[in-house]
Amino acid sequence: MKTSKPATNEIQAVEQTIGKILRWGVIVAATIMILGLLLYLMNGSLGVATHYHVKNFSELLQGLLTGKPYAVMMTGIFALILTPVLRVVVSIYSFYREHDSLYVVITSLVLIILMASFWLGIEFHL
Amino acid sequence: MFNSIVIMLGVGVLVGILGAILGIGGGMIITPVLTLGMGLDIKYAIGASLIAVIATSSGATIAYLRDNVLNLRVAMFLEIATSVGAIVGALLTGVLNPIFLYILFGFLLFFSGANMVRKLWGKNSDQITHTDDKLAKDLRLSGSYYDKNLHKEIDYGVTNVPTGFGIMFGAGVASGLLGIGSGAFKVIAMDTFMKMPLKPSSSTSNLMMGVTAAASATIYFFNGSILPQIAVPLALGIIVGAAIGSRVMQIMPTRLMRIIFIPILLYLGLQMILKGFGVTI
After folding, report:
1. Which member of A78, A110, A122 has the closest CB to residue B76?
2. Looking at the complex, does the CB of residue A63 fall below 8 Å from at least one CB of chain B?
3. I want to staple B225 with a disulfide (CB 3.0 to 4.6 A). Which of A9, B4, B47, B232 is the partner?
4. What is the pTM of this model?
5. Per-residue pLDDT, B126
């Protein structure tokens, strides 16, 4: 177990960095969600037709530009969906900084798989 | 409108606390509240559950990273298995008869529940392994965490890595194919098979389940399964609940965590086996 101590310190540094950035990600997502929720409460409606749902990014952006509560809340949710991705990206960078090449490879693989399923989801509704 | 927001905030706090402590998403609580309680279609319950998993994961992981409870290397290594499994599962929809998987994973939940009971009553309950298997050594998976209940640093080894990896792959396939959460299976793979202590298992599961859920989230985001008026207050409540839960878990005795976990595993196991036979509870 002699070799495990520096490894532990190294991983702790990586975890601290990811933790800090993740906290900011969550704060940003929560702020947008709270804004959307307040807008929804003030307007008394979502600002969209009853069975409407957003189908792509340009629709989301349009709704956002016209200040629809629905679009603001959905943007907050999308920001929240991105926080796990952020976690993986920052992990790659932190492992790289700590010269842990094995885990740079492993974590990059996770990111590639994640991107593949994002793409499959958007393109093929898989 | 105001009432439903308040209910969702409240349910969220509860789901966040429980999810952060046990390393599971709150689908089993959210689904009945939305379908039976509010009369919503199951489709919206699935969408809300998915967002809930991500909110729990991100909310809890902040504290678990700061306090070095979770095991980042184990998380990233196992995440490969789950996320590849999830894609395979999604591709197999309609090809594979899910009944076999439901029953297999139902029994796995029962087995793990029984294993937890044994750990609870056994004399050497929660004995920590210090022998890493070869793969764990090569991947430097062993770790340590400071147990705020025992007031000491706990060093632990990781073993049976191939089995754990296999279970994570299977859990990924099941979640992609059956649309079930895989938080409980993540904890099982680490606690029951890889012999990790329960606290690092649960917190590592917390980190992973958000990544797994994010992988399929874009589908649900654009197909109308997510009702923001439900998901937003739910997620906000969960972020608060998870912040509380991730602090409470660290000072909790491991035994108490198991006592909460056992009935949940048995319930989930029963639910899966019945679902395999077409009965939904």
Report:
1. A110
2. no
3. B47
4. 0.91
5. 62
Q: What is the arithmetic mean of pLDDT over B240-263?
A: 95
A76-105 in b/e form (b: 16+ CB < 10 A) is bbbbbbbbbbbbbbbbbebbeebebeebbe
Q: Which residue of B has its CA nearest to A102?
A: B139
Indicate yes or no: CB of A116 within 8 angstroms of CB of B87. yes
Q: How many CA atoms lie within 13 A of B5 on its CB side?
A: 15
Name the minimum distance, in Å, from the CA of A45 to any CA of chain B: 9
Residues 193-212 of B with CB under 8 A from A: 207, 210-211
Q: Taking residues B125-132, report their average pLDDT.
A: 70
pLDDT at residue number B59: 96
Beta bridge partners of B144: B155
* A44, B100 Cβ separation under 8 angstroms: no
For A24, which residue in chain B has the nearest alpha carbon? B62
Residue B220 C-alpha from the chain's centroid: 19
**Confidence band of B134 (pLDDT split at 50, 70, 90):** confident
ipTM value for the complex = 0.90
Q: What percent of chain A has pLDDT over 70?
A: 91
Helix/strand/coil for B145: strand
Q: B254-276 vs B2-22: helix axis angle to the nearest 10? A: 110
